[in-house]
Amino acid sequence: QKHSPKRINILILVSARVYLPRLPKYHFALNNDVIHPYAKGSLGFISASSGGSSETNFGFGVGGGAAYDINDQFGALAELNYQIASGSVNFGINFGVVYSFE
Fold it and tell me: Which residues contact 81 (CB under 8 A, 6 or more apart)?
């Protein structure tokens, strides 16, 4: 029995997001000096290209997270983001390190 070769499709997607102006974060006041929860929002344009074609759409996003102060200069953060642009929905989880110049 002869096997036909398997075809592999590779999709290359390039995406650029420009959210200007970025809406301010709302920081919730807690009786805690170390953990700082916040909510955020964004408005802007998303441009994506694939296979020689490109598309730019208006989008918006909402999210929230918390920053944790490790010491006076360093911290860590975790946040969830939900973005919608012309029917396309993106959900993301971000983790980061914060450095304060103050």
Answer: 61, 62, 63, 90, 91, 92, 93, 94
Residue 69's nearest CA partner among 30, 16, 23 is 30
d(CA 23, CA 71): 27
Judged against a pLDDT cut of 70, whether residue 60 lies above it is answered with yes
Predicted pLDDT at 2: 55
Binned at pLDDT 50, 70 and 90, residue 70 comes out as very high
Residues 6 or more apart whose Cβ sits within 8 Å of residue 89: 82, 83
Higher pLDDT pick, 36 / 22:
36
Residue 7: count of CB within 10 angstroms of its CB: 5
Is 89 in contact with 83 (CB distance < 8 Å)?
yes
Please state the pTM of the whole predicted model.
0.59
Residue 63 near residue 33 (C-beta atoms within 8 A)? no
